[in-house]
Structure formats: C-alpha cells, structure tokens
Amino acid sequence: MRRLVRDPWFKDKSIGWGLTPARWQGWGVTAALLVALCTTLLAPLALVRHRGIAGYEVFIGIAACEVLAFISVAVLTSTWLKGPGGSGSGR
Fold it and tell me: Alpha-carbon torsion 25, 29, 34, 36, what sign?
C-alpha cells in the first residue's frame, strides 16, 4: 500500500506504540474525531429528553464506525506506509 499524501500527517510515537499527529492536517483529523464522538455519544441524552428514545446501540455503532474511519485515515496518511513517490520508511 502507498501513503495517500506526500508529507505524512501522522508519525510514530517516540515513546510507546502507535501514531501521533505530525502536521496540522493530523491534528485537524484528530479534533474532528473528538467532536464527532462527543456529538454521537451525547445525542442520546438530548433525544431521551425530547422523544423518549433509549436505544444506545445505534449510537455506539456509529461511534465505532467513526473510530474505524479515523484509524484508517491515520494509517493511510502515516509514516507506516511508503509515500506516493516511493519514499518513506514503510513497515
């Protein structure tokens, strides 16, 4: 697989395992995930007050999809994959 961007948005953590944002785009994706998760997980509280809905399963499923999408973006734009020009550390 090849990285989707020339300059990686995420890089290896210096301590521990995983990725950390390296550019403003990585920080933007991370912030968007946090906003989306907060909105998704707080939505049932608002709906219970107004409509009496108590099914959290749908919202937990949506949150899981958001996390999987974030992981996909992080890996596809990270130093773990070769860059578009063939450069990069790869794994």
Answer: positive
Tokens of 85: 């020009």
Tokens of 8: 């990686």
Residues 87 and 57 sit within 8 Å (Cβ to Cβ):
no
| Dihedrals phi, psi of 61, to nearest 5 degrees | -65, -40
Which are the contacts of 86, defined by CB distance < 8 A and separation ≥ 6?
none
**d(C-alpha 58, C-alpha 40), whole Å:** 10
Residue whose entry in the numeric block shows the structure tokens 């300059």: 7
What three-state secondary structure class fits 82? strand
The pTM (predicted TM-score) of the whole model is 0.76
Maximum distance among all Cα pairs of the chain, rounded to whole angstroms = 54
**DSSP at 2:** B
Residue that is written with structure tokens 């944002």 in the block: 21
* Band of pLDDT at residue 32, cut at 50, 70 and 90: very high
